[in-house]
Amino acid sequence: MSAAPALRLCGRATINGAVIFGPLSLDVPAGEWTCLLGPSGVGKSTLLRLLGGIADEVAFEGTATPSDSAPLAGRIALMAQNDLLMPWLDAVANVTLGARLRGEAAERDRAIALLERVGLADHAAKRPDALSGGQRQRVALARTLMEDRPVVLLDEPFSALDARSRARVQDLAAELLTGRTVLHVTHDAAEAARLGRNVLLMTRAGITRIEVPKTHTPRRFDAPESLAFQGQLLRLLMESK
Predict the structure, then answer these.
(1) Are 192 and 201 in contact (CB under 8 A)?
(2) Is the full-model pTM beyond 0.70?
(3) Could you tell me which of 218, 113, 222 has the C-alpha nearest to residue 174?
(4) Distances 59 to 9, 12, 20, 50, 78 between C-alpha atoms, Å
(5) DSSP string, 198-224
(6) What is the pLDDT of residues 195-207, one digit of tens each?
(7) Quick check: 181 and 6 in contact, CB under 8 A?
(8) Domain residue limits, the chain
(9) C-alpha distance from residue 175 to each of 32, 57, 117, 150, 179 (Å)
């Protein structure tokens, strides 16, 4: 994996003339986990897709650049809200899907090692319909790691999980994505309070950086400082427009 750059996006986005967001400025520090929190409809996912180069329908006036000025293409992995597993492929084939789509040789041994790392060594030959929601999400995480990109974009990737599975997969993702530049879009104040080394609040007015507790991430969900921070973030969400 190459060095993880910082990200900066400045500008305004529209679709068919309707303003989606902006003008605004987004700064994502290098090699750290940044949560982008905000109410629905303010353009968080659009912003993520612009950075990922998959927002062809969006007219963007501005700049989106990494700190090293090298092209972002080929250096980003995206993990979406839905696991997007191919139902006719087993777990190993889903993990190696990116390479196969690019016409590259699939590194099966490495895929199996990653599935073992996420606790699915005994499920490598199973198709998605034989896996639980949490297991499917871990396959999606292994697929993201398989891409070995320095920049990882997460769009509500844990929202479909039950509380216990969500906490476990959050912890696993925080461990395995250490050192990468992670931008994580979420509506969940508790999730941002646990995972964010940096927390940004996006509203119609723009993006505001929120001071975070001086504790290691992922923070304990029941720690007083985590609960207080969660409450602060929820109040800000309730007050936002």
Answers:
(1) no
(2) yes
(3) 218
(4) 14, 8, 10, 10, 21
(5) EEEEEETTEEEEE---SS-SSPPTTSH
(6) 999 999 999 989 9
(7) yes
(8) 85-148
(9) 12, 35, 11, 15, 9
SS (H, E, C) 58-106: CEEEEEEEECCCCCCCCCEEEECCCCCCCCCCCHHHHHCHHHHHCCCCC
> Which residue type, as a one-letter code, is found at position 154?
L
- The number of angstroms, rounded, from the C-alpha of 26 to the middle of its chain's C-alpha atoms is 15
Partnered with residue 201 across adjacent β-strands are 37, 208
Q: 5: cis peptide before it, omega within 30°?
A: no
What is the distance between the alpha carbons of residues 231 and 237, in angstroms, rounded to a whole number?
10
**Structure confidence by residue, pLDDT tens digits, 12-46:** 999 998 999 989 999 999 999 999 999 888 999 99
| Cis peptide preceding 71, ω within 30 of 0 | no
CB 38 within 8 A of CB 240: yes
Distance of alpha carbon 161 from alpha carbon 241, whole angstroms? 27
CA distance 192 to 168: 15
